[in-house]
Every structure is written in C-alpha cells, then in structure tokens.
Amino acid sequence: MNDTLARWSGVTRRYGDVLALDDVSLDVPAGQLMGLLGPNGAGKSTLINLLLGLRRPDTGSVELFGGDPRVPANRALLGCTPQETALPPTLTVREVVDFVAGHHPDPVPTAVLLDELGLTGQAARQTGGLSGGQRRRLSVALALVGRPRLLVLDEPTTGLDIDARHLLWGKVRDFHQEGGTVVVTSHYLEEIEALAERVVVVADGRVLVDDTLDAVRSRVQQRRVSLRAGALPALHHVVRAQEERGHWSLYTEDSDALVRELVRADVEFQDLEVSSASLEEAFLALTADDRATTTAKDPA
Questions:
Q1: Tens of pLDDT along 3-62?
Q2: Minimal CA–CA distance to 258: which of 243, 241, 245?
Q3: Nearest-angstrom CA–CA distance, 262 and 221
Q4: C-alpha dihedral, 188 to 190 to 196 to 200, nearest 10°
Q5: CATH 1.10.1410.40 applies to domain 4-217
Q6: Is the dihedral angle over the CA atoms 126, 129, 133, 139 positive or is it negative?
Q7: What is the Cα–Cα distance from 227 to 79, expressed in whole angstroms?
Q8: Torsion sign across C-alpha atoms 184, 190, 195, 199
Q9: What would the pLDDT profile of 170-191 be if each residue is shown by its tens digit?
Q10: Burial of 86 (0-12, 13-18, 19+ CB in 10 A)
Q11: Which residues, 6+ apart, have CB-to-CB distance to 165 below 8 Å?
C-alpha cells in the first residue's frame, strides 16, 4: 500500500499567460481510489494530461510507475479514459476491443468485458453508429482490457443515463476491490461521493484540499435539517432554506438549537433528519472561500 504509482512534484504549467498549475504536488499510492474535483479551468485536465505523457510540466516533475510517463514502457500498466476518445468509425465494437487487447500480454477476454459493461448487444455494431453513452462505456472497456494497475478516468460518465452510470460505478468499485488504483475526475459530485475514499479539490491551478471524503465534508460546519412541513416561521438559526413540495432543507450551524426552536414555535413537522453537509455543499463552500481569499489579496 506504500507503493506510489503516480506523483506530481512541484509542478507548474502555463498556457501562454494562463497559469494552469501552480506548484502542485500530489502522490497516488497503490490501492487508493482518489477523486479529483474542481470547477472548469481548475487544472484537472492538465494534471491528467501530464500523467498520461501528453504534456510536460514547465517546472517540477511527473512520475508514472517511477519513470517518465512519456516513455511508452512506463504506461504499460496504465488504463485511461480521456474526455474525448477517437474511435475508428468503421470498425465494430468487438474489433476495436480485440485490437487493443492484442497489445497486452494477458488481456481480459473481449466477451467478458463487453458483458460486464453492457455492450454485448453492440459487439457487431460499428463504433460510428454508437450513442455517446455507448462510446463512453466502450472507452472504459478499452481502459480495462489490459488489466492495468492504475486506472485514470477523466469525466467517465458524461452522456450516460443513470442506469449506465451505476453500472460503470459498480465496475470501478470491483476493479478497486480487486486491488486496482483509480484516479477519477468528474463534474458529477455525487459520483465522487459514491466512489472516492480520498478527495482532492483544485481551483485556479492549486490544491485547496487533499483529505478523506468525510474530512472534506467536515470542512463545512453547516448541518442540513430536512423535514416535511407547511409554511415555516422566521427561524433565527437558519442560514438558508430550500423548499420543494413541502419538503424543507434547512441549513444551520447549530442543528440542536434549530430543532429546539422548531419545537418551541409549535411547528408541525414530519420525517425530521439531521445530516452533515454533502460533498457538493462542501465543494461549493471551499471554492467560494478560495475565491474570496484571492479577491481580498488582489482586489484588482
């Protein structure tokens, strides 16, 4: 478990005048499932492209299995799904998987992989005729066919419906439980919440938080009190409130005091539930705090 499969060390990367990464250092130990979160332009894709050997850092270094990721031999045990996958449009799904499998010494049998990813029915279809969701599932199949040690998934469920998304989540969990290491980026915060044990939040090319899923949630002090009720009176301990069809989500920094206040106000309610902040709420609060800090430092 102490074996480090990937490492970014003091990495800086610019695109013209745009600073994409600012002195970023991260390690990915074997056996971990790491979720990479950040708004558009945060630097997530640049981190992935450096690890895949598609870009080189301006300063600092990137290691993959202890070597330069631009050397093909160091990518032999890497499986990846880029945001956009170019597939030969006239080849069938089975032919594409067989072709990639032929580059590995001990590939997963094509029929097994297609069945696990719900693509058996499309095996004889040309890739040019696949839907966007089917193409995403095929790209995951190509990433897994070589039995990689490290799986890098860049926005893996874009275009998938909820059933296909859960199918892919199950496959990622299986890979991880069998000892595989995963780095996943996603705009779906519930995806990171469902999969990751470690969460790295990046914004403006810097790492804001690198911690466990529970620790990231705990960075937001607010609690959510959910209940069903009619109209509510003004409540002193509510920071903000949301209501939909009689279901209220009340955000507070003191859930015990809020519940007491509801009782004293003789509010008739049902289905009361108190929970910690979701990953989405933590993410929004963390990036908002970072923007406020940056603005204070540089008012211009």
A1: 999 999 999 999 999 999 999 999 999 999 999 988 888 899 999 999 999 999 999 999
A2: 241
A3: 20
A4: 60
A5: no
A6: positive
A7: 44
A8: positive
A9: 999 999 999 999 999 987 788 8
A10: exposed
A11: 157, 188, 191
Domain boundaries, the chain: 4-217, 221-276
What residue has token string 């949301």?
Answer: 242
Q: Is 246 left (phi over 0), alpha (psi -120 to 50) or beta?
A: left
b/e code 228-245 from CB counts within 10 Å (16+ = b): ebeebeebebbeeeeeee
Distance CA 114, CA 250 (A): 45
Place of tokens 């959510």: 224
User: pLDDT by residue (tens digit) across 65-107?
Assistant: 999 999 999 999 999 998 777 899 999 999 999 999 999 999 9
From residue 106, alpha-carbon distances to 77, 102, 116, 287 in Å are 11, 9, 18, 43
Cβ(33)–Cβ(199) under 8 Å? no
The whole-model pTM stands at 0.79
> Is 75 strand, coil or helix?
helix
Give tens-digit pLDDT for 19-29: 999 999 999 99
- Is residue 178 classed exposed, middle or buried when 0-12, 13-18 and 19+ CB atoms within 10 A define those classes? exposed
Six-digit token string for 58: 């301006």
Extract the runs of DSSP E, i.e. beta strands, from 58-166: 59-64, 78-81, 150-154
